Amino acid sequence: MNVTLKIWRQKNATDKGRFETYEMKDINTHMSFLELIDVLNEKLEMEGKEPIHFDHDCREGICGSCAMYINGRPHGPMKGTTACQLHMRHFKDGELITVEPWRARAFPVIKDLMVDRSAFDRIIQAGGYISVNTGGVPDANEIPVSKEVADEAFNAATCIGCGACVAACKNASAMLFVSAKISQLALLPQGQVERQRRADKMIAQMDAEGFGACTNTQACSAECPKEIDMVNIARLNWEFVKAKMHSKAIEVDE
Amino acid sequence: MRLESKTPEGPLAEQWTKHKFNLKLVNPANKRKYDIIVVGTGLAGASAAASLAELGYNVKAFCFQDSARRAHSIAAQGGINAAKNYQNDGDSVFRLFYDTIKGGDYRSRESNVYRLAEVSVNIIDQCVAQGVPFAREYGGLLANRSFGGAQVSRTFYARGQTGQQLLLGAYSAMSRQVANGKVKMYPRTEMLDLVIVEGKARGVVVRNLLTGEIESHSAHAVVLATGGYGNVYFLSTNAMGCNATAAWRAHKKGALFSNPCYTQIHPTCIPVSGEYQSKLTLMSESLRNDGRVWVPKQKGDKRSPQQIPEQERDYYLERKYPSFGNLVPRDVASRNAKAVCDEGRGVGETGLAVYLDFADAIKRDGMETISAKYGNLFEMYEKITGYNPYETPMMIYPAVHYTMGGLWVDYNLMTTIPGLYALGECNFSDHGANRLGASALMQGLADGYFVIPYTIGDYLAGMPYNKIPTSHEAFKKVEEEVRTRLKKIISIDGSQTVDQIHKKLGRIMWDKCGMSRTAEGLKQAREEVKKVKDEFWHDVKVIGTDEELNQTLEKASRVADFIELGSLMIEDALHRNESCGGHFREEYQTPEGEAKRDDENFSYVAAWEYKGEGLPETLHKEQLVFENVKLTQRSYK
């Protein structure tokens, strides 16, 4: 098959950037979308031109590195699929395919299709954990967790931190990402002790990073390659309200 | 050079406890005076960084990815072993130890493997406390499944995403220490060399991948947790960025490299479909719990699988190994798949595939049960191949997956360079010649959570607190070497892309130093790799400069190291005149075609010493002593 690629090229963070068009001939339909970019890059390098820079690593849909709009949609047209797992058999012969980096103030473009998602790391650092040191923990089976709760926590925990939720949102909100972690830990018995403090801190960090507000359009969940459910955002809101309303039993200096 | 394994004396079961008591301690107030560099943030690196920071050390952690959470441990699917015996099926620390030693074809150190089995139970406790959502039974307790090479159910899992959940646990523990100011995180930063001052590892030289700047970092000890070298083969289940550079540069600075020829070819991967292919995808070994492996009895049978009646199918693993059946260890499963394909009974367009069939399991347990166990794996398979495994058998073929070889370490996980440690896949220590499924996660976390926090103190306790400034001439010299090398690569401006050269290397390695090897093939490979090296240094084309973000240069620098490591793998494979685990030399097999060890002559760890550019490496041997298991011909029949 043949396709035309229209790809965003941007030298660095200060460059204005522009689309460039590349004709791709005789593409094998079993190829993944990133392999198509590999083929293009080989060609560009042979011509002495700079290859397209993009983040990618595992190519199994789990590391969360790859991040690009394909025809205007985060990770492209397939539901529940990252760009690296998207294969050319899902495109039409002769199709024009537009490729862009994530567009969000909190994810500045680094080069071409690469963006800076370190804001996500800082949100986790703010409280996305259970504060236990190595060693000295109880036997694993001393903390029973019902299968239903464990499964629901797992569903939230499958988030790969790719940023598609932010990219899909007209407000560039990170609520789905943040809620997935808050939800996972709030559901589990191990996460109860720090439940309110965690919600409070992670949400504050999310706001500080410049992500937008959530208006419940559900675009995030629809475009999430791991199909993280909207119910997590409802849980986040509940955790937030509780954190704000709850009078602390013991006042401590922060 | 004498290799001192520092294995403690005394009965196996008491060694680690006794050793821990004998290790020197660093007073809590003094720990903050020591800086430790951790390179790599996968299971081993992240767990080490978190645990060391919790103890009070100042940790600097480095990864080449944009976030620590993306290290390739994330992609491990099936599970993690632990000798909890929660299933009451006869498991014990000794049995896990025994299975691991046997699975490794008696080429690993007893003391290390026993300790691994011993701390395995703590890992599960730790991960659950962190909120890792392992699979559970309705009663609320943890669920287990069985894995290849074991007859007990000791594998803990989180659907087909166990690695992801464990890594996010370790990443969160490390993130907490970043917030505490005890871990300083350097993402998008690649270690390009080790700095040694007065014989001790005292720092690293790294490249900031965003700016291209070469920077130095000084510390009292350096911990490498940089993963394996499977990408030597170009096509493997490793992530695109996985590389051997940190370990290889350490090797060139004096750390011995052990058993490089022990590579694991995983039996259940999605077959290669074309030249453009950038990597191979693993289908978890757990699938072999319910999937049945078969090929047609008839050569060249081109019928669709559904059209081939039961009596014309050869369930060759069940036929040849009735007691382990489809759950034989990985090396055995892989070799058998190759054998039936070599006979012309392979399936699919290329004839390089076998079926993994779930029809019987679906009939027996129902669609829902199978989907609950393997749903995400089936989906992944369908996404990649376009075929639905609920309806048509999966097609699988072996692919390079894991490397058992790595930097030589003693019982304390220290390499032959004082102050340089190697953890996880980048050391050689626990899996012998073949790793059992669900043991990589176990080893990574054992090393990071429960071994290095104890053993590093013993070394640091003898160190003065003084820091070496990065203005020290040793740092400046290495920085200059690193810069010169990168500029040299850029300046070649030849006619072949990095990938073209890498693919050539991979082809040679796969054909001649892959699933089966011969002395003749290896000798050819030796010459061919020399040629590839020459082509690289005279004809590679890298666009752009070294003073900016340049993904092609990153790849080129890694490929240059893969080529050198590939040569050493070939030498090691050629010298080891026996078959064991993942190293199968065609000249050495039993009449039934199983790997034939030579315990009398090869019951040792090969440890190679770098002698300089273009010179042959020197072989050192660490004899393996087995006091607790009897060496037998592995049998899974």
Structure description:
The complex is a heterodimer of chains A (254) and B (637). Chain A has 254 residues and is α+β, with helices and mostly antiparallel strands. Chain A has helices at residues 33-46, 118-127, 147-157, 164-168, 175-187, 195-208, 219-223, 231-245, and strands at 3-9, 18-24, 69-70, 73-74, 96-100, 109-111, 114-115. Chain A has 2 domains: 3-111, Ubiquitin-like (UB roll); 117-245, Alpha-helical ferredoxin (Fumarate Reductase Iron-sulfur Protein, Chain B, domain 2). Chain A has 8 helices and 7 strands. In chain A, the strands form 2 sheets. Chain A has a 5-stranded mixed sheet with strand order 2-1-5-3-4. A two-stranded antiparallel ribbon of chain A has the order 6-7. In chain A, 52% of the residues are buried. Chain B folds into 3 domains: 19-232 and 239-264 and 402-460, FAD/NAD(P)-binding domain; 266-399, Flavocytochrome C3, Chain A, domain 1 (Alpha-Beta Complex), CATH 3.90.700; 473-598, Fumarate reductase/succinate dehydrogenase flavoprotein-like, C-terminal domain (Methane Monooxygenase Hydroxylase, Chain G, domain 1, Up-down Bundle), CATH 1.20.58. Chain B is 37% helix and 14% strand. Chain B has helices spanning 12-22, 28-31, 43-55, 93-103, 110-130, 162-179, 245-252, 316-320, 330-342, 359-365, 367-385, 440-460, 473-492, 498-512, 519-539, 551-575, 599-602; strands at 35-39, 58-62, 80-81, 155-156, 183-186, 189-197, 200-208, 214-218, 221-224, 257-258, 263-269, 292-296, 313-314, 354-357, 394-403, 406-407, 420-422, 604-609, 618-623. In chain B, the strands form 5 sheets. Chain B has a 5-stranded parallel sheet with strand order 5-2-1-9-17. Chains A and B meet through helix 1, helix 2 and helix 3 of A and helix 3, helix 5, helix 6, helix 11 and helix 12 of B.
